[in-house]
UniProtKB/TrEMBL annotation:
Heme c 1 binds at C118, C121, H122, M260. SUPFAM superfamilies: Cytochrome c. One of its GO terms (cellular component) is plasma membrane. It comes from Humitalea rosea. This is Cbb3-type cytochrome c oxidase subunit. It is found in: Cell inner membrane.
Length: 287
């Protein structure tokens, strides 16, 4: 590589003295407009650092932040929505559902609140999921599907340890409460027979008196369930934790205890009312 300055014979411009494989670099100055633009960018950057929070722990002379800007926008939106929200707080869910204007607003707001707070467990359409997440789109309810029942369930939750009025009681783990695994298996066969899915009539016959002794108080003589306790029906084919034999045996032997948060400490009254109307409208709401 050569390092020799000379004047280019074609352009008449001096070279920088750098050459590689016969290619020489001309020593052309940068265009003035480009240099002035570059200097202006440097000056603008320095001014920006002074005016706005561009460096750690430096708030800037103007004190502007996007967080403050967003807060202002949210306050404006809240003020705009407040008249309608006040009406939603003052009305009961049944009254909201009976008013076309309030109902339309509640369904739109409830859909958003549901997607944000409830869909993670109950599914985007309220279809629920095996594993203790009940469907909200059918007519099978643990605690009732009226407006009042749904509102209470959303407000206080279930077995959450944070609200003293939370729904639900603890189901015993019968394998630790006196039943042998053989007896648990017999009870499971009887429970399955209540919905017509049992496969061993002899085992079900052995499980019947065990069911009466241990399960009737909560689930009823025919497996109709008890909404006051949140004890699910056993005589249909809708299962929270699976309706196969192994799942039923596990439920009886070791118990299940689904937990739902108390939303009254997280959401305001208007949002809970909107959620109530939305959930009631998913398909299984009762009058």
């Amino acid at each position: 590589m050569a390092d020799k300055r000379e004047t280019d014979a074609i352009s008449g411009v001096s070279t920088t003295g750098h050459e590689w494989d016969g290619i020489k670099e001309l020593d052309n100055p940068m265009p003035s407009w480009w240099l002035y633009t570059f200097y202006a960018c440097i000056a603008f950057a320095a001014l920006w650092v002074v005016l706005y929070p561009s460096l750690p722990f430096v708030r800037g002379v103007l004190g502007y932040t996007t967080r403050n800007d967003f807060t202002g926008v949210m306050r404006e939106q809240q003020a705009r929505a407040e008249p309608m929200l006040a009406r939603l707080r003052a009305a009961t869910p049944a009254e909201i559902a009976a008013d076309p204007e309030l109902r339309g607003y509640a369904l739109a707001g409830g859909r958003i609140a549901f997607a944000t707070n409830c869909a993670g467990c109950h599914g985007s359409g309220g279809q629920g999921a095996t594993g203790g997440f009940p469907s909200l789109a059918d007519d099978d309810w643990l605690y009732g599907g009226t407006f009042d029942a749904i509102h209470t369930t959303i407000s206080v939750g279930a077995r959450n340890g944070e609200n003293p009025e939370a729904r639900g009681v603890q189901m015993p783990a019968f394998a630790a409460a006196g039943l042998s695994m053989a007896q648990v298996d017999d009870v499971a066969e009887y429970v399955l027979s209540l919905s017509g899915t049992g496969g061993d009539a002899t085992a079900a016959a052995r499980g019947a008196p065990l069911y009466v002794e241990n399960c009737v108080a909560c689930h009823g003589e025919t497996g109709e369930g008890n909404r006051d306790l949140g004890a699910p029906r056993l005589n249909d084919r809708i299962w929270l934790y699976g309706g196969d034999k192994a799942s039923v045996v596990r439920t009886i032997a070791y118990a299940r205890a689904g937990v739902m948060p108390s939303w009254s400490s997280r959401l305001d009254a208007a949002t809970i009312n909107m959620l109530t109307v939305y959930v009631h409208a998913l398909g299984g709401g009762e009058r």
